[in-house]
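Predict fold of DUF1737 domain-containing protein; 66 aa.
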Amino acid sequence: MSDHPPQGLPTYRVLTGPDDATFCRRVSAALEQGYLLYGSPSTTFNGESVIVAQAIIWPSIRSSIS
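Predicted 3D structure, encoded as tokens:
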């Protein structure tokens, strides 16, 4: 595994969106690329739907944030 994420992506990202299958697929795709979950997901309600956020990190930065 590379020290850097693919396609110039950042080492730390926060994925957000409606709590639906599309969001789950986005998180799953990031995990398949090699990202790791960072912390627990957060949720809120915007008056219409539940919005979720999940932080992810590239493994090479794990030691610098612990």
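The helical segments are 21-33, 62-65.
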